[in-house]
Design brief:
With 165 residues, this protein is mainly alpha-helical. Helices cover 70% and strands 7% of the residues.
């Protein structure tokens, strides 16, 4: 199962080891420290250290310090909707916004050209891309705001996918 989650994370553009670390922590009965992660996943201490820092940055792993102990313990974010929303907000939404800026610049460039059949065709296609980008941006913004899904889907997610965190 850890490998399958790692493969899915790699498909989404994250490192496979990140998915495996998160999955191990998600399934663990208690927070784990780096040595336990390294042993359980057969990764080096350096790989674990770099990976958990990145996972913390994404908010999918949380570090805990325990009084009187030098080790750092890690636990997985269990609210799957919160995790996916953050990734969509910080990664996909930024890509969509960047594309929108590029397309607007292309439209301004085409607007400045002399009218021609080629210009008209390109302008029409750029405007179609702008419209599709606006729809995509709206959908992602509504998804991360929790307003895109029908109420029954939201209730199901609340019961089955959203952790106690």
């Amino acid at each position: 199962m850890l490998d399958a989650i790692g493969d899915l994370m790699a498909f989404w553009g994250f490192q496979r080891s990140h998915g495996r670390i998160w999955a191990l922590l998600f399934l663990a009965e208690r927070p784990l420290h780096a040595a336990e992660l390294a042993a359980g996943l057969e990764l080096s201490a350096g790989q674990i250290s770099m990976a958990v820092r990145e996972l913390e940055r994404w908010g999918v792993v949380h570090a805990e310090r325990r009084q009187g102990q030098r080790r750092t313990w890690f636990r997985a974010e269990t609210n799957l909707f919160r995790m996916v929303s953050r990734v969509f907000r910080e990664r996909e939404l930024e890509q969509i916004r960047n594309l929108a800026r590029v397309l607007q610049a292309a439209r301004r460039h085409l607007d400045a050209l002399q009218p021609s059949d080629v210009r008209s065709q390109r302008l029409q296609r750029v405007e179609a891309l702008i419209a599709a980008t606006e729809v995509g941006r709206d959908m992602v913004e509504r998804l991360v705001a929790g307003t895109l899904l029908p109420a029954w889907v939201s209730r199901t997610l609340d019961r089955s996918l959203v952790g106690e965190d």
